[in-house]
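User: Structure with magnesium ion, tokens only please.
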Amino acid sequence: MKPPPLRNDCFAMPPGVDWTPVDDALDVLRQGMRVVVGHQEVRVPAAGGRVLADHVIARQPNPPFSNAAVDGYGFAFSSATPATPTVRDGVDRDRNSVVTLPVTPGRAAAGAPHGTAVPAGHALRILTGAPLPAGVDTVVLEEDVSSDGARVSFRAGLRPGANTRPAGEDVRAGARLFESGHRLRPQDLALLTACGIGTVPVHDRLRVAVLSTGDEIAEVGTGRVSAGKSGAIYDSNRPMLLDLIRGWRHGPIDLGRVRDDPGRIRDALDRGAEEAEAILVTGGASAGDEDHVSRLLKAEGELQTWRVAIKPGRPLAMALWKRRPVFGLPGNPVAAFVCSLLFARPALRVLAGEDWDQPSGFRVPAGFSKRKKPGRREYLRARLDGEGRAVPFASEGSGRISSLAWSDGLVELGDGARDLREGDPVRYLPYSGFGVS
Ligand code: AMP
Ligand code: MG
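Assistant:
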């Protein structure tokens, strides 16, 4: 069962739009995306990180039976009357009343239930996790009793049902545990299992192909080309993007790197469309002489070039290649990273069956001042200092790859923001909110 591919016009901007505000670009992207992967049933232990293809209902209550929450003695609350009856409504009026109960033979333990009913006015040795036998609804903690072996005594004042876990107090049978589109976390597997669920319907993993383009791009460590000689630079984008995709729990597919050559780019995109449901390409996305990616996508792939009003980031090329969405990202690693977090991440989530998601951020005081041009959104690579203020990397230059490694998040300066003074509130988006850890 596989849904049909995306529509051809899914990336179209409204006519007349020149520099598109980030939010408008995100709106268009959001409207064009929907799930493109099929689904399958998998066993719960293997379902971590997978996206639910349907909601899940609890088969069994949790806990499945009423049981003891502590080691101690179980009895029927209504039959445990203190010697001096000063307890009313579970409250010991003179704080001195004592209950004494004869101990009935046997015990109840986890996995070893007590087979017979406990007579009224008697207590039974009971251990944590043991099912409450008939005739027991309340447990007194072992440390709160004195015992001569035949009887136990304890202070009155327990509430009815104390130290027990009633069946279904956590989850009722039939309760909705998770919605379709939820990506399962380790603790979710615990809940599914507790509620008797052995398999779940999950989406197939979204495969995302990554391609680097550029005549200058060289592989590190091959020994054949060294960066610096004849203008070569190492391919920083591919290891970064492949690892981002892995971290987002999609299936990364490495298409390698190709020269600025339309034929080779075409072949690589064909391979990407064959092996993956989405493609990330870096380099060649502008309108320059050697920007063959955008030219090719325009000629053969329903290109929509977006001039997004964002820094860092130049035109973002969105296209369908053989009906697979292609994200043409800037070649510059800093811009490629920021644009991947902002645009590729939520779109890939939807393609994979998850919901569209805004990164979570919070307001902090700026630990810097800055003059900013209004009319575009800016993202600064930043960290929080000891006082919780956001400090940006020393240089804003988008060639500063070290700023990515130095930073823990982005400071978002709104489209309309102008001069910023130290102490002004700014929005800080930690990388963890983008699923980068
Ligand atoms: P482009 O988008 O092709 O105009 O490239 C913009 C800048 O990013 C140029 O300085 C390129 O050399 C650089 N660049 C492109 N691709 C990569 C890459 N894979 N790794 C590092 N830098 C790159
Ligand atoms: Mg280039």
